[in-house]
Specification:
12 strands, Rossmann fold, 44% helix, 4-stranded parallel β-sheet, 3 domains, 13 helices, 14% strand
């Protein structure tokens, strides 16, 4: 059986003290020795196949160099770039991420965070939180470093990295209004989530500033950020008999579902109804039609969240300061939006009148 290579073995091979090797192998203390010596130590440690004894390190520092990362749905394409950003930043400081998926279930989230804490993770990065998340607030108050990413909790004591939702809705509504749309529907996200609430609030605010139709029947609220809810909400909007020429969706998956619902009704996007998304998740530029959407900084969000968490880990609990980072967004104009056609408004009004007539037998012609 091959003997495990130790710090002492590396030190003897290089001709330096063990403490010098320890500093060179730690990214946080490497700057304390000369670059030439550090490079030599790293080279020799690789040649000797030196591996840090994680158990010994944990006993010495009371840290495991592991971070729990919790997402609501790993199949949602918006999360892999966030996770990659987290992993790249953690790896640069010698940490590793352990990933868990909640399926949007709060009980499962509580169970996962309890398991992570029992295993001694040094901190948590949460992408699955709801606005009112008492379990996360308690863990944060108990001193466990926590950062939420993409979403945030209402508790300002929990650090967060989110997107500029107000700016995103301002951009997307300015775009569709600029095309000539006056009657704009909205498929809002779940209101238990900060993204759902913030984007709906921003939609209503900028809709009013632009003087667009403010009929409450033009808003449908999804129960989840997925394709199925996009279909359901679009069908609900179409069945209400209220005229609209564009649908602004609170994320890309809702937009994909909405576009599918339009096709089922024999309607074309954007010829009959324009559709927009939010997030610019991978591959939406390859849809037919390619989706007009708001691009958020997915990789940067993960990287920033990990950076904040590592800073918290290195800071005593009594000196930690909560940070809330808001990342800028961009409008990506593609083929799913266009100016309303001249016949589009008349056709929508005709459909609305027909539905109203069917609902009121007194307006229907007498049978022959």
């Amino acid at each position: 059986m091959k003997k495990r290579v130790t710090l002492k073995d590396v030190a003897e091979a290089v001709g330096v003290h063990v403490s010098t090797v320890s500093r060179a192998l730690d990214p946080k203390t490497r700057h304390l020795i000369t670059a030439e010596v550090a490079e030599q130590i790293l080279k020799v440690s690789t040649e000797l196949d030196y591996r840090q004894n994680a158990a010994a390190y944990s006993l010495k520092t009371n840290r495991t160099r592991t971070i729990g990362v919790v997402v609501p749905d790993i199949t949602n394409p918006v999360f892999p770039p966030i996770i990659r950003g987290i992993e790249d930043r953690l790896a640069a400081s010698g940490y590793v991420a352990i990933l868990a998926n909640t399926d949007g279930n709060r009980r499962r989230e509580v169970s996962i965070t309890q398991t992570f804490r029992a295993r001694g993770v040094d901190g948590l990065i949460m992408a699955s939180v709801e606005r009112d998340d008492e379990a996360i607030s308690r863990l944060s108050q108990d001193g466990l470093p926590i950062v939420t990413v993409n979403r945030q909790v209402d508790d300002p004591g929990v650090s967060s990295v989110v997107n500029d939702e107000d700016a995103g809705m301002k951009l997307i509504l300015g775009h569709v209004a600029g095309l000539g749309h006056q009657h704009v529907a909205n498929i809002a996200g779940p209101q238990a989530l900060s993204t759902g609430t913030a984007r709906l609030r921003a939609f209503e605010h900028h809709r009013d500033l632009l003087g667009l139709d403010d009929d409450p029947q033009l808003i449908a609220v999804a129960n989840a950020f997925n394709d199925e809810e996009g279909v359901r909400c679009a069908e609900e909007l179409l069945s209400r008999g209220v005229a609209f020429t564009a649908i602004v969706c609170s994320n890309d998956r809702l937009a994909i579902g909405a576009t599918a619902a339009l096709r089922r009704r024999g309607l074309s996007c954007p010829d009959d109804i324009s559709v927009t998304g939010y997030n610019d998740m991978p591959m939406v530029d390859r849809l037919f039609p390619a989706l007009t959407t708001i691009r958020v900084q997915q990789y940067d969000a993960g990287h920033e969240a990990a950076d904040i968490l590592l800073e918290m880990i290195e800071t005593p609990p009594e000196r930690r300061r909560r940070r809330h980072v808001v990342l800028p967004v961009d409008l990506m104009v593609r083929e799913s939006t266009a100016a309303p056609s001249k016949t589009q408004g008349r056709a929508r009004r005709a459909r609305s009148a027909a539905r109203a007539a069917m609902a009121d037998p007194a307006t229907m012609p007498a049978a022959e």
